[in-house]
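User: I'm putting together notes for a lab meeting next week and I want to include a structural view of one of the chains we've been expressing. I don't have a solved structure, so I'd like a prediction I can at least talk through. The sequence is below, exactly as it appears in our construct file.
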Amino acid sequence: MRLNITYILIALILSVGIILAGNLVGKMHLNGLKYQRYVSVKGLAEREVDANLAIWPFRMTIASNDLNLLQKKLENDSRIILNFLSEEGFDSEFSTGVAEIQDSQTFNYGSPNQSNSLRYIARKDFTIRTPDIPKLHRALGNISSLIGKGIVLESKNQWQGVEYLFTDLNEIKPGMIEEATKNAREAAQKFAQDAGSKVGKIKSANQGLFTISDRDINTGYIKNVRIVNTIDFYLED
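Assistant: Thanks for the context. Below is the predicted structure for the 237-residue chain, given as structure tokens.
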């Protein structure tokens, strides 16, 4: 009799264990299905900012048949340009390159009958690098005053006379990432609403690259900063 009771107790314990294990496996399966439900959305953030650094590389070119006269004019014109830059407030915001003089008679190419009206050509480069963009714009507006002194300047980079940069990206990064995340959640909520669900926690997030571009080809000193994040949100019933 006692042996039968022992077998019964063992059977009951095993039965209860099997039932509990089944419930646990069932819950784990349901939780697994729950966490398999998510939506992947993209969040966008854009801002217009003013460039905070301008770089203008420009060049003067002089030609002459007399090397001594060329040298004197090169020194004189360089002095006039430096005085102009100083008057415009660029005392410590410019650099000068080494003058290069080219002798056209040393060319080993071209037509044998080709002749150059001026034998010597001298070029000298200057570069302005300044965070004061309005000051640079004023100076560019006054460049014509050099023409009356026989000096003509040309931008070294023909495709982009002045290069404008925005260097304070780290200052606006946190706010833009927050804005992109909020935008992504709003998109996920719209999807969840249409699907009869609710948006839960973030499953995973992939931060995109920040891009900085000109607002348009005419206003390079105004930049468009853009970031697109990809975020996965869990969906809940």
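A couple of points you could mention at the meeting. Residues 24-33 have pLDDT under 50 and may be disordered. Residues 2-36 form the longest helix (35 residues).

User: Perfect, that's what I needed.
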